[in-house]
Amino acid sequence: MTSRVPALVALAAGSVLVLAGCATATPGASASDSATLKVVASTNVYGSLAAAIGGDDVEVTSIIDSLSQDPHSYEASARDQLTVSQADLVIENGAGYDAFLDGLIEASGTKAPVITAVEYSHDYPGNEGHSDDAHAEGDGHDHAEEGDHAGHDHIEGFNEHVWYDPHTVEHVVEDIAHELGELDAAKADTFEANAKKLIDGIAGLETSLEKISAANAGEKIFVTEPVPLYLTAAAGLENATPEAFSEAVEEGQDVPPATLLEATKILDSGEVRTVIVNAQTGGAETTEVTKLAEKNDIPVLKFTEILPEGLTYVEWMQKNIDDLAGTLTR
Question: Does one domain contain both 32 and 130?
């Protein structure tokens, strides 16, 4: 996104004192302490998954819930820290994408289990060759016991936008249901049933992607940022973007002239079928790419990092997939 310097979560001592004075709930309070389980998610993407699984039995707070907010540069507040301190379950993306939440977890002293989505990706370092059942029994992390968080830091060469990978999201859904069931065993069957329904919907996304791949495998796309690359790879599409281009745009840096020239040649080649830009960011390079695409009659899609208002995760991803398929039939 536009500003790529992660916000340092350093709440002032005064803020901590305010929290000490107003916090009345025990961190990671169990279901016996409250009628509903409190779930805190870094973004509304993961919040929507928890809400679909937990239904009326969970109270979900998504810290980032607007297209105008940037998880990379979000500055956490004392209220956010209080919210995390009262959570029964915390869900983050990890790999430095939402580093503000790691700071909140440490500062709040919560003992709530933490689900880190990137750890379910086959591409996550150390996961190559692991079976799909590696996390099947739930693998929420306890910060109080673990110390440094495994998914905290940005990982060079790893695409952290794992919510665009339906297969990874299926595993995240399984673990959310497992952790909620651990917290409230009486409702575990309900959570599992809701998770199965959600996974069935996600499986439909994978079927749609397989259909695109069957008809268009090997077709080239150009992306200004790596946000949608898990989705496009599952659709069998080839990313023609110079790596230095998308990395510079994502980090908010200037694209080197030689890289920009290379990108121009690619877009002028007639081989690129679709250009995908991040609708939440902008910049001179993104504008230039959009203009080049329009000049060459290449369709331009706008994808977002945050769940748009009024859509479920499955509805959102299905729309993205349908839009992508539509550009490939032109």
Answer: yes
Q: To the nearest 10°, the Cα dihedral for 18, 24, 25, 26?
A: 90
Q: Please, are residues 154 and 221 in contact by the beta-carbon 8 Å criterion?
A: no
Residue that is written with structure tokens 């994502």 in the block: 250
Instruction: Check if the beta carbon of residue 122 is closer than 8 Å to that of residue 128.
Output: yes
Q: How confident is the model at residue 245 (pLDDT cuts 50, 70, 90)?
A: very high
pLDDT of residue 26: 45
- Tell me the whole-structure pTM to 2 decimals: 0.86
SS3 301: strand
> What order of strands is seen across the sheet that includes strand 300-303?
238-239, 220-223, 272-278, 300-303
CB 57 within 8 A of CB 36: yes
Q: Which range, 8-22, 107-121, 125-139, is most confident?
A: 107-121
99 with 107: CB under 8 angstroms? no
**3-state SS of the chain: helix, strand, coil percent to 5?**
50, 10, 40
The residues, ordered by sequence, that sit 6+ positions from 307 with a Cβ below 8 Å of its Cβ are 43, 44, 45, 48, 313, 316
Does any domain span residue 8? no
158 and 248 in one domain? no
Please give the Cα distance from 58 to 80 (Å, whole number). Answer: 18
Report the C-alpha gap between 89 and 47 in whole angstroms. Answer: 11
Q: How does the average pLDDT of the chain come out, rounded?
A: 87
Number of independent structural domains in the chain: 2
pLDDT digits (tens, 9 = 90+) for 150-189: 445 667 789 999 999 999 999 999 999 999 999 999 999 9
Residue 7 domain flag: no
Name residues whose C-beta falls within 8 Å of residue 133's C-beta, 6 or more positions apart in sequence.
none
Q: What is the pLDDT of residue 132?
A: 55
Domain region containing 115: 13-204
